[in-house]
Amino acid sequence: MRQLLEIAEDARRAKYTVAKLGTNDKNRALLAIADALEARADEIIAANAADIENGRAAGLNDGLIDRLMLDKKRIAGIAEGCRQVAALPDPVGEVLWMRKRPNGLNIGQKRVPMGVIGIIYEARPNVTVDAAALCFKAGSACILRGGKEAFRSSMCLTKIMREALASCGLPENAINLVEDTSRETATQMMKLNGYLDVLIPRGGAGLIRSVVMNATVPVIETGTGNCHIYVDASADLEMAKNILVNAKCQRPSVCNAAESLLVHRDVAAKFLPMAAEGLAGDHVTIHGCARTTEILGDAILPATDEDYGREYLGYEISCKVVDSLDEAIDHINRFNTGHSECIVTRDYDASQRFLEEVDAAAVYVNASTRFTDGFEFGFGAEIGISTQKLHARGPMGLNALTTTKYIIYGNGQVRS
Amino acid sequence: MRQLLEIAEDARRAKYTVAKLGTNDKNRALLAIADALEARADEIIAANAADIENGRAAGLNDGLIDRLMLDKKRIAGIAEGCRQVAALPDPVGEVLWMRKRPNGLNIGQKRVPMGVIGIIYEARPNVTVDAAALCFKAGSACILRGGKEAFRSSMCLTKIMREALASCGLPENAINLVEDTSRETATQMMKLNGYLDVLIPRGGAGLIRSVVMNATVPVIETGTGNCHIYVDASADLEMAKNILVNAKCQRPSVCNAAESLLVHRDVAAKFLPMAAEGLAGDHVTIHGCARTTEILGDAILPATDEDYGREYLGYEISCKVVDSLDEAIDHINRFNTGHSECIVTRDYDASQRFLEEVDAAAVYVNASTRFTDGFEFGFGAEIGISTQKLHARGPMGLNALTTTKYIIYGNGQVRS
To answer: What is the pLDDT of residues A302-340, one digit of tens each?
Structure first.
């Protein structure tokens, strides 16, 4: 077993080689990885079967087992993901600007690889390949630490990726999996200053919080989304209903799903029954304020501040009638997690104020919050959705996995 | 005395108002602050005198006392700094890009204020105003925590700034100074998750390390610079000498000053005596490798790995003769702090490889590392120099104090 520090040293050495690779070499390696994953599907399925057997024995629920499970079709999907990453434009090398200063220095800002990227995630073997491919395309080495329930699967996938790199004459240490799945090693990884240039947690709120609280290396906080739909007094109520039902029910387990409905009092009596009818199709439980209950009756559960702060990730929603746009904005800025927020309105000023004053990564007028996604935004890929304000905010594509350096061309300038 | 959590709540409330301010309102307030600082110079000087008296009693050295000291001229300089910040373009509101997606959504990325910015710094009262002005212009509230030796001065400056804001009808809680100067409160500030959007330490290596190791809020690591001048085999040796002497001696106490000289073996016998002669003008002590000593003789102290890793911040330099460009790049990537690095060369390939392969915020060909500075780079201001790769790398101007949000204009789109 490679110890974490050994892995960190290996990755640090490999990063210089990876950073220098041309686009063609990186793409060739990604395609070789994709082919190897498909060719060796039986090997992956065997390793995965052991994980699943252990998982069942440990009492994992069906949802978790499903997330863990790999079959030929899913492996083909993972391989296809690698091919898609190969097809994306290379972010490395772009000069964002270059200017000539009065003293004759030409100063430019160039996009360059990050170096070594750490990813901590849960028991989803597909993330192992997905994250490795994105980091590699962005010119960085990676250190992956997946959930221990998927360890055999992830180890097998990593072995295949590393062998594919080696078969292309590239350093296998560009892609590394933490082999010791203890919690202590995860904590040690969060403190790998001098080795890790960034650490990105992907997963549930508990995992993300643990990384944010323990890490001493730079972190990009991702994920939790307490997203609101605010139905303004002037809203097209049919549109509002469609957006609400889509944002809540189309895939309720994801972070860009709506968790809370705010309705202007002027349209509450008309809209809330429409909303309830729309949500009833998926048996959504409504936690409403007193005015909601007045309108919808006793089928509504009472909403507390705790409800307004909750990310249900299921068929539940909190609901509040507000007196004004101001109250809606204040409520959102108090309870949201800085992810995605939507106003449904026909009023120009309301739309402008909402866009301006709501503090979130993505602010929508008249569209479902479900669009907050790297693919939907046109980035071609997504490593996660940042809910912090540093470095990257919102869906993160390949650019978010790079940094910049200043390049300065002089001819003998000294400072006076 | 306002407690830290009280200040944090106040700042969080104020941030929404500050974020909405128009450019004219912000500039008017900055000019009012500048005027008030000059008008109340006597008050500031009196507070400062108490700090200086305490400082002398506590045995602060002359350098620290000088950094602490304020007089009419320095106060005028600080006020002028505010006027310069007022004159800078407002970074807030710029839409970096907007694209129409196939589904008709118009998605744009807009530059918006950070929210609440924390700055931890040492006993330099000028930083109190400088940092507050930059954060304010960038549309954010700030919480400042300065060195306790300058507390009375900083408190007086903060009081004047807050009263100037109030006189303009703006929330004084946009600018806050931590009033409890204990170490415990500083540590508590580093963990103000949910209040602070970013924390920037400005100061020496010890302060920065303490923030990086203790903070749970996002941090931008600034500062330490172990900067190298590499004199290539093909270098114009006169130019190399000028650049070396400027980078080492023009202001040796700052982070962009050179700390280490690397010389290609082919020019070592010719260049090292030129370098030694140039550095002798400022009595620079040279810590050299064995080959350096062979050429320069016994006046040279032997260099250890510790020397190669040191930021002397004074009239000392480490020196190594290298066999190749590769060795120079490897040495720099091993020992540097990711700040500023320079090659002096006439060789095209060497210049390209150095720019590409050296891992640092600013990489120079044929110019002094002393140019790594927000003003020299044309940003008009500087809050610090980032040596990390996340969010901002290199000199940070107003843009580095902002974040972005995605704004999405739809007309009823839902996800299928």
So the answer is: 999 999 999 999 999 999 999 999 999 999 999 999 999
- Name which of B62, B208, B84, B71 is nearest B153 in CA terms: B71
At A178 the pLDDT is 97
A299 C-beta neighbours (distance < 10 Å), count? 11
Work out the percent of chain A whose per-residue pLDDT is above 70: 100
Dist. CA B351–CA A147, nearest whole Å: 45
| Res B298 pLDDT > 90 | no
b/e code B21-49 from CB counts within 10 Å (16+ = b) = bebeebbbbbbbbbebbbebbeebbebbe
Contact B355 A407 (CB under 8 A): yes
Q: How high is the pLDDT of residue A203?
A: 86
Interchain contact, B408 vs A371, CB within 8 Å: yes
The whole-angstrom distance between A271's CA and the closest CA on chain B is 16
Rg of chain B, C-alpha, whole Å: 24
The Cα of A267 is separated from the nearest Cα of chain B by a number of Å equal to 18
Establish how many alpha carbons lie within 13 A of residue B11's alpha carbon, considering only the half-sphere containing its beta carbon.
31
Residue ranges per domain, chain A? 4-221+392-409, 227-371
B399, B413, B416: best to mutate for the A interface, most A CBs within 10 A: B413
Strand order in the sheet with A198-202: A175-177, A141-145, A116-121, A198-202
Q: Which two tokens stand for residue B114?
A: 């950070």
pLDDT of residue A30: 98
pLDDT digit string, tens, across residues B211-258: 999 999 999 998 789 999 999 999 999 999 999 999 999 999 999 999
Task: Identify which of B27, B412, B59, B362 has the alpha carbon closest to the alpha carbon of residue A410.
Answer: B362
The CATH number corresponding to B4-221+392-409 among 3.40.50.12780, 3.40.50.360, 1.10.3720.10, 3.40.605.10 equals 3.40.605.10
pLDDT score at B204: 85
Contact list, A371 vs chain B (CB under 8 Å): 105, 408, 413, 415
* DSSP run (H or E) holding A113: strand A106-113
CB contact under 8 A, B407 and A243: no
Q: CB distance A364–B218 less than 8 Å? A: no
Alpha-carbon separation of residue B127 from A213, A235, B78, B331, B352 (angstroms): 29, 48, 9, 35, 38
Query: Which residues of chain A have a CB within 8 Å of the CB of B348?
Result: none
Exposed, middle or buried by CB within 10 Å (0-12, 13-18, 19+), for B82? buried
Report CB contact under 8 Å: B390, A361.
no
By CA distance, what is B330's nearest residue in A?
A: A16
> What residues contact B112, with CB distance under 8 A and at least 6 apart?
B19, B92, B93, B139, B402, B403, B404, B405
Give which of A388, A384, A313, A402 is closest to A127, Cα–Cα: A384
Pairwise CB contact (< 8 Å): B378 & A415: no
Helix (H, G, I), strand (E, B) or coil at A51: helix
Residue range B227-371 forms a domain whose CATH class is: alpha beta
Region A112-130 average pLDDT: 96
